[in-house]
From TrEMBL:
Belongs to the outer membrane factor (OMF) (TC 1.B.17) family. It is found in: Cell outer membrane. Keywords: Cell outer membrane, Membrane, Signal, Transmembrane, Transmembrane beta strand, Transport. One of its GO terms (molecular function) is porin activity. This is Transporter. It comes from Flavobacterium rivuli WB 3.3-2 = DSM 21788.
Amino acid sequence: MRIFLQRMVLLMVLLGAPVLHAQVPAKELTLKDAITYALENKADSKKAKLSVENSEYQIQEVRARALPTITANGNLTFNPILQLNALPGQFFGGPEGSVILAPLGQKWSSTAGVNLTQNIFDQSVFTGLKAAKTTREFYQVNAQLTEEQVIERVANNYYQVYVQRQKLTVIDSTLKNTTEVRDIIKGQYDSGLARKIDLDRMNVNLSNIKTQRQQIVNAVVLQENTLKFYMGMPIETKIVIPKTEFNVTPLNINETPDATNLTQYQLLKKQEQLYYYNKKAMQAEYYPTLALTAGYNYIGQGPQLPWFAKSSDNVYWSDFSTIGANIKVPIFNGFATRSKVRQADIDLRKTKEDLIDTKLSLDLAFQNAKTQISNSLITISNQKENVQLAQDVLDNTQNNYQQGLATLTDLLDAENSYIEAQNNYNTALLDFKLAEVQLIKSKGELKTLIN
């Protein structure tokens, strides 16, 4: 029986092994796919949407102050010892000038009723209602800004992943070519036609290339994980980035955008409005307030618990009602209101300075992006020609080396020059794409990346 169970466990493990080691296909990821995924799954984007939803509840809270407040109340009181009150004796048939101690009230009393309060005039409520619309708009603009920030981060990291993969492609091609040359030299050395030092130098160079490749592989993994994080994608998900995504396209850099129309600036404008209403709310404390109050109550009193008792039990029930108006006129509070108003005014003035500085910053970002675009285009053109030239030099040097017309040092130098030229070209491409993202951002067109 024991042997049978062991065989069954072994069989289950063998049957489950293919499932456990099944390869999950890599997800092909375009830039549009990456951004769309991030906007749907990244925590920042979700939280911004929740803030918009929460703003509706904040608005309802402010509106509630303008609506009537209705409360129901009830109480039950037992007086073990009734208070004695000194009353004139003649009221009860006694001699003039006499005083008697008489208890007032009953041992038990119970009250139940409904009260209503309605603000008739409260300047802070009116100001809060005016600020309600601005509050909603503030969170809507903030959600839009958050989306743009998510798009920017994803686009930047997407291009960085692409460049790292391009570097990996270059090093893989170099590794393949170097391995072939090393094998040729090894064959020559085995035949007595090459020196051992040449074979050793090739082995050292091959080892260095393998080390560089491992470093790039690690960089690719780290950059991909960073991209997945900014997308809100599970880190274990495998992704593939199409090569066609990385193209240099002409951009319009002559039209200067209006920075005041950008989301970052508009958010500050909404914040300025909120600070304005906050100042108005502080000033509202100078105004009097008027509220209407009304109540209807029912009271029962007697020597025993009034609930469910009757008049035959000496328990009596009666109702009473009140209607009134409460007015509150501020006179002096130690200049506390004045201090609050001045603090609110400082916040408003600071926001105005932030608006000036933000516009300057947005204009700077656009000009810097234009400069970077122009420089990158020149660098890309030069590096593209340099890569082709380095490739030609490497091909010729390899051919000459095989024919004995070039030294091993010449071959290694040509190989290193080609790798450097290719990496410089990829770096120039990355600089261009990052500057492109900044230019699109400075024009307020980041959402065009998902169109």
